[in-house]
Amino acid sequence: MSVLSQLNVIQVSGLTKSVNTLEGNLTILSDINFAVKSGESVAIVGASGSGKSTLLSLLAGLDVATKGEVHLDGDALSTLDEEARAQVRAQKIGFVFQSFMLVQSLTALENVMLPAELAGDHDAKAQALELLDKVGLSHRLEHYPSQLSGGEQQRVAIARAFIGSPKILFADEPSANLDSKNGHLIEKLLFDLNKQNGTTLVLVTHDELLAKQCQRIIHIEAGQLEKISEGVSANVG
Amino acid sequence: MWVKLAGKLFAREFRRGELTIIFAAIALAVLTVFSLSSITERISLNIEQKSSDFIAADRRLSSNHAFEPLILTKAKEFGLNTAEMLFFDSMLFANDELVLGSVKAVSNEYPLRGKVTIKDNISSQPFDVEHGPQPGSVWLSEGLFYTLGVNVGDNVELGAGIFNIAKVLVKEPDSPFFSLSGNKRVLLNYQDIPATQAVQAGSRVFHRLLFSGDDQQLTDYYQWLKPQMKSNQNWQGIKDRQSPLGNNLDRAERFLLLAGLFGIMLAAVAMAVSAKRYCERQYDPVAMMKTLGGSRRVIRNIYLLHLSLVTGFSIIAGFAVGYFLQSVAGEYLAQFMGTELPQAGIRPWVLSAAIGIVCALMFSLKPLLDLFDIPPLRVLRRNLGDTIAISRIHITISLLTIFVLMWVFSGELVTTLILFGSTLLVIAILFGISRLIFAAGRRLGLSPGSSWSLAIATLQKRANANAIQLISFALAIKLMLFLVVLKNDIISDWQMQVPSDAPNMFIVNINENEVEPIKQFFNENDIAHEAFYPVFSGRIDAVNGEEYSRRVSKQEGEEKDEEARDGVSREPNLTWLDELPEGNDIIEGQWFTGGDEIEVSVFEGWREVLNLELGDSISILVNEQEVIAKVTSFRTVDWGTLKPNFVMILSPNMAGTVPVTYFSAAQLSDSHTKGISQLLQRYPTISMIDIKAQIEQAQSIIGQVSLAIGFVLSIVLVSGALVLISQVQASLAERLQEVVILRTLGAKGRLIKLATLYEFLLLGAIAGLVAAIVSDLVLMIIQQQLFAVDGKLHPYIWLLGPTSGAIFVAMIGYFMVANTMKQNTQGLLRKIA
Ligand SMILES: Nc1ncnc2c1ncn2[C@@H]1O[C@H](COP(=O)(O)OP(=O)(O)OP(=O)(O)O)[C@@H](O)[C@H]1O
Ligand SMILES: [Mg+2]
Questions:
Q1: pLDDT at residue B439 greater than cutoff 70
Q2: Considering just the CA atoms, what is the radius of gyration of chain B in Å?
Q3: Which of A132, B63, B296, B338 has its CA 20 to 30 Å from the CA of residue B259?
Q4: Does the pLDDT at position B686 exceed 50?
């Protein structure tokens, strides 16, 4: 393994994804190459349908590529099976989704603790309480998702994403379902926590302003990597 | 580690009502099987007891030859209780009156089952005892007190002995339905037989041994006895074909069995549907857990634990409710019958728990496996995994499981096949119909915005889901209709067998020249009576020149032998008749043609035993005189009636060739008593046999069984209703989202409620109609196959099915939607988020 790939927490090479549809073979992503350094924040932008979510799912090992390889913190994802990839996710990855994806039958606190519980870590409660406090929900611990507003649910999701101190955080349009005020609140939280924890952030968005807050911006168009540009915070570190 | 999480999730899911239906379905299966099997077990134990009373034992062995002592000693070795009986005729003498009495000598153990009813003297109240007379004394039936002019306490000479008359004999538990003994019964202690000196070598006597014990002992003993039984020996149980009770018991048992099967089927349908629904609702949490790094193993463990917990809880709940139900029903039945119902054993517990577990496992297996396979990518592509929804494998596994459950539970392949096949037929028809209807509805062109068009639009949109719903509605309705009809038919059939105007008195031993005067007496007094049958007794000697005993023993070793030979007595009562009696049907050959030859029509059941064919000649010895009759027809006999039935009916050209007496039956009331005693004085040889008690006994048993059937039916109806409710609930939960959207868009609650009402009215009516049609067809087959009753159509269910289906289903749907409407829209939106 090269020194480079050790520095790069995500290394994407020749990544291609195609699916079989009724109208024949459809290539969603073709020959994508880039790398993300540890602690870096990267935005993936592009028009709707350009393949952003698909790329994210491949990076997180939620799906497998047709061709090419993703190295995630040294692990070649294509060599791992579903179980091993789940293992990797449990240890190294946090998620925030557009549609919150909280488990309805668990309380806010329990939702935050869920990844830790799944990983067999029972001492997560203190960390969960701390995270919920940071997202401003310490007074809603025992509430179920259906009792929370959208913004509050997303804040729970963010707290959940950071539990267990993951190396990488993936976020797929985390503020798209919220009004701009709440959206900005969420974005700020995300970036703040990211900086505090030194986490690598990969953020899918079509909000140019939000993208600019990242150090680098990966532009996807019709499944191709169009360019990689620098964000405003490129030199802040 | 996962246990805590699983426990937490389970508790929440349970509280949120996610598991309610699945819980109810398993509990339903358990409680149905539990209460059905324990109540049927208790009832059949009780009925068996009662029927044992009818023969004063559990089994009996009869012969006109003395038994070898080994038969009795062996029975004791097998742990059986035994009693000995000897029947013979002997002269009674008192006050210069001489009468031929029909003596039944009984050992001290008699009766093994049931009670003897006696009176202290003619005018006192009857009471029950469980023994016969002491040595040295006799009990006489009332008629003998009159003819001999004696009282209780007097002495009477019986054969060569002198006995004290101790009691008036009112009723023996095992008094025969039809016998020539009449009211001239003498009950004697077995030890006193030698004192009478009436039983000599060559006298006509009839020996009988009574046995009682548990089933296993009886079976073991019979296994031992069977190989050495002689052709003159006859082994009889309580369920023999030729007893009216045996017949009805059989039918009752079959009915209860069927009802149990239906209960299982209903619960299975509910279970299969709800398990699938539950798993589908878990797709998102599972995808989420997988995304967050939950391994397959952990997820599998979590959900398997859920399954075990819900199974465990619902089995306990099923036990509780089932126990309560069966004890209430048992209490009620016991009260109604004035008897105590014996407790059921462990069987219902084990059986119902096993069925609960099998249901839980088999019906949720495939949905669970699907659940474990949900790709984590679903968190990004929201509809991933939805395509798994309709699974042929799930349906196949569920159907197979239902089939095996039914088969195991009933132990009858044919019944199971018929029921199962008809169920598949319903499913096929309904799939076709639902496709057609939902397609046709599109062209109705109702004005948009009306409740009806909304209802139909919804129906169409959910064509597949609706087809499944339609099928389960129809199945539930079908099973319920089925049992209602069967119950009505069985019970009315029974009531026909023992109608309230049935003759209550047999008149036997009527001489040829007494027939006309008696007929006249009946007519003058407006007494309803049966025809006068000529009766004579004959001994089957040979068939086609081959000796009878050889003929019967040829069958030895065959399985059916035990059952087949039961009914065959070598000396049947014979008659000749012009016309085929009511309740008999010729199944092969022809009724008498009026030729010169003597012809005989034989009971179908004897054809196999004697290996008879049309055209065979049977030689019968009637008082040393040989009669050769040609077999010209085989006939069914309805042994369920209390009417005289004959296994062999000879052609009327027999008349005059052998001496006969006549037999009739009449319905006599108390007002006729005087006229009858005059009649008896004028023709003293005639015997009257009061069968009121037997009729009452039969009616009481029929009453009990009818009640049991009614109870079982109501349990199945409740299960059916629960299936319907759970189905409606499931479908409502699915459409909650739609309701919320409509509500959000400003649809009035009334519109939504009406639309739901109409939708369910349509669904219920269609389901009910198909259910009615199919169940009526299946009923025809079942009745013929299982109950040996002529199948007929039942037009009333063609109306009952659709209307009850529509009303019931619509009602449930309406109330549930109305309930939802009460919540505010915001609350609903939250619920589906
Ligand atoms: N399994 C699949 N089968 C068929 N087409 C697919 C599949 N997965 C993705 N696609 C297609 O690939 C393209 C990219 O999808 P993707 O969800 O990655 O877009 P996106 O950039 O995230 O869009 P948006 O901004 O709207 O979320 C779309 O046109 C989508 O329809
Ligand atoms: Mg997307």
A1: no
A2: 34
A3: B338
A4: yes
Whole-prediction pTM:
0.65
Helix (H, G, I), strand (E, B) or coil at B409: helix
Span B271-287, average pLDDT:
81
Return the residue in B291, B295, B297, B382 with the most chain A beta carbons within 10 A, the one to mutate for interface testing: B291
CB B568 within 8 A of CB B620: no
Whether residue A26 has its Cβ less than 6 Å from ligand 1: yes
- State the pLDDT at residue B642: 62
Q: Is pLDDT above 80 for B457?
A: no
CA of A49 to the centre of ligand 2 (A): 7
Residue B143 pLDDT level (bands cut at 50, 70, 90): confident
| Interstrand relation of B533-537 and B661-666 (parallel, antiparallel or unpaired) | antiparallel
Q: Position of tokens 């692990």?
A: A75
Which of B17-31, B300-314, B540-554 shows the highest mean pLDDT? B300-314
ipTM, 2 dp: 0.84
Sole residue written with tokens 């008593």: B673
Tens of pLDDT, residues B24-39: 778 877 887 888 778 7
Residue A33's pLDDT band (cuts 50, 70, 90): very high
Judged on CB neighbours under 10 Å (0-12, 13-18, 19+), B169 is buried
Best probe of the A interface among B295, B297, B380, B384, by most A CBs < 10 A, is B380
Enumerate residues 6+ apart whose C-beta is below 8 A from B1.
A117, A120, A122, B298
Residue of minimum CA distance from atom 29 in ligand 1: A49
Lowest mean pLDDT among A200-204, B388-392, B468-472, B537-541: B388-392
Position B316 scores a pLDDT of 94
B507 beta partners = B664, B688
Tell me the domain boundaries of chain B.
1-58+237-411, 59-215, 431-498+694-833, 530-666
**Distance of CA A61 from the midpoint of ligand 2 (Å):** 16
Residues in chain A: 237
Q: What is the DSSP pairing of strand A8-21 with strand A24-37?
A: antiparallel
Residues B75/B76/B78/B82 CA torsion (nearest 10 deg): 60
Contact B384, B377 (CB under 8 A): yes
Please provide the CATH number assigned to the domain covering A39-63+82-234: 3.40.50.300
Q: What is the pLDDT of residues B632-643, one digit of tens each?
A: 888 887 765 666
Note every long-range contact of B345-350, with CB atoms under 8 Å and residues 24 or more positions apart, other chains counting.
B345/B41, B347/B37, B347/B41, B348/B33, B348/B34, B348/B35, B348/B37, B348/B38, B348/B41, B348/B322, B349/B34, B349/B319
d(CA B82, CA B650) in angstroms, rounded, equals 39
Which of A174, A178, A144 minimizes the C-alpha distance to A158?
Answer: A174
Mean pLDDT of A88-95: 87
Could you give the CA distance from residue B181 to residue B583 in angstroms, rounded to a whole number? 26
Taking alpha carbons only, the member of B243, B225, B245 closest to residue B235 is B225
Q: Show the tokens assigned to B797.
A: 């269910």
Give the integer Cα–Cα distance in Å for B817 and B728: 10
* Per-domain boundaries in chain A: 39-63+82-234
Q: Which residues, listed in sequence order, are joined to residue A71 by a DSSP beta bridge? A: A11, A76
List phi, psi (to 5°) of B660. Answer: -135, 165
Looking at residue B745, its pLDDT comes to 62
Q: Rounded to an integer, what distance in angstroms lies between the CA atom of residue A35 and that of residue B622?
A: 114
With a pLDDT cut of 90, the percent of chain B lying above it is 6
